[in-house]
Design brief:
Elements (H helix, E strand, L loop, with lengths): L1 E2 L6 E4 L11 E4 L8 E2 L4 E3 L13 H12 L9 H14 L13 H12 L4 E2 L6 H13 L5 E5 L4 E9 L11 E5 L17 E5 H7 L16 E4 L6
Antiparallel strand pairs: 1-4, 2-3, 5-8, 6-11, 7-8, 7-11, 8-9, 9-10
Helix pairs in contact: 1-2, 1-3, 2-3
Length: 237
Amino acid sequence: MLRQARPLAITLALAAGLLSGCAAVVTPSTASDTASVIDPRGAIELSYSYHSQQTGDWCDPADIEMWLEADGVTLPSGGDYAIQQTFWNYELAHNDGYTLAQWNASPYAVAVTLNHFGAFADVGDAPQASLADAGAVISRSIDLFHQPVIVMVGGATHYVLVTGVQLGPEGVAAPPVAVTIANPLQFGVSATPPAGSNGALSMSWADFGAWYTPDTHHGGIWAGRWVVIAAGLDVAG
């Protein structure tokens, strides 16, 4: 079931010096996080356990942790910090030739880390030329492959995990009409959701599209394109 979407006012507060990785605060201020749900035709929501990022940079390791845990993959030993540190170390060792200042860390690093620790062979980072193309990737991955998707929002300053979609009349050939996401920075660094919440936020595709914008902070193949890490894509870094 997909949580009821509400009109969204998006607040972006980006800290200087963090634009190559996770923004210090990237918060959809009024997305629905209540227990009210709908069960429309064409909606699917994947089960997951929420984990916040353990440092200001580790939005991608937190998303990787949530994705792999949802798939039943045995995670590295230790608590959230140790798990995310392990993923982060692997990302930095496979950062497609970028320095930490250029990409911390690159979409390529995220994709290969998922493939390595998840024993996957089909998760890729091919940049998308339009919001519509990226949306179709999200619809297809969640509905057909039953896999979450990692995207970069705020001009490619922050990674979030997409865990649910409500499909429109064109199905997986088009963007969904609504999405559910897990934002690892929603409650702050190393924070937990309030009682009764699993950290899920839902919004219409139009509202999400105002947040999910092309990369304006990096060069390389993702510049001016939409960043998405999903099953069924080529590794393109």
